[in-house]
Amino acid sequence: MKQTESLTRSAFLLAFDLRKEKLTQRSELGYLLRAAALAELLLAGNLADESGKARALTHPAAEPGSLRAVVWEQISNSPPRSWRRWVQKDLGKAVRVVRDELAAARMINVERRHILLFPVERITPRKAYLSRRLAERVGRAIRGGQPVGHLDEDVRVLAALAAAIRLKTVIPSWRETRLRRDRIQQLSAPVEPIATALRKSVEAARAAASG
User: Fold this and answer.
1) DSSP of the chain
2) Strand 81-82 with 108-115, pairing
3) For residue range 38-97, what is the model confidence (pLDDT) as tens digits?
4) Sequence-separated contacts (24+) of 129-132 with Cβ below 8 Å
5) CA angle at residue 22 from 166 to 11, to 5 degrees?
């Protein structure tokens, strides 16, 4: 992963199921992207955890209009609120912002058409090998083989967030999540409040959908 690549863009690319040639868990992608933006801000010192709530500190060096900038502005203009609140906010907008960034960078193709008057959007990666390589690195981080402290920070955080929502491209089953529980806890340590908020948000959404 390039040092200049954002966690949000990498999370979007990680969500591509290359066998099915589409994004996996599309309805949950917004949660993942919001969590990735929050993680970037926390690790950079732009946010702090204050008794389980996100508090804005220094302004981030982020491109105006990027998801990272959007999220920080929302938090800085609000009293401290829970991480879960910020993970769940404006999910559709989060997907659109990162989608448009990747399309402008010619990393993905976006095809739009109508079926029976309903708009349909198909998103595919232009460089599938990047998604494949990223999934391999994140999958290895979850399954072990290298001490957590030796992993690149971006890979470690992506692995923690992917495990929090059981992203099928890297951790296909609930059984594997249970088997790797201790490893996942270690991976999540730098962004623990965000990983927990992401997991609980997605679990609540799944319960609501099934109910």
Assistant:
1) --TTS-HHHHHHHHTEETTTTEESSGGGHHHHHHHHHHHHHHHTTSEEEETTEEEE-SPP---TTSHHHHHHHHHHTS--EEHHHHHSTTHHHHHHHHHHHHHHTTSEEEEEEEETTEEEEEEEES-HHHHHHHHHHHHHHHH-SS-GGGS-HHHHHHHHHHHHTT-TTT---HHHHHHTHHHHHHHHGGGHHHHHHHHHHHHHHHHHHH-
2) unpaired
3) 999 999 999 999 999 999 999 998 888 999 999 999 999 999 999 999 999 999 999 999
4) 130/13, 131/13, 131/14, 131/16, 131/18, 131/169, 132/18
5) 50
What tokens were used for 201?
């948000």
Residue labelled with tokens 């950079």: 44
Q: What are phi and psi of 107, to 5 degrees?
A: -95, -20
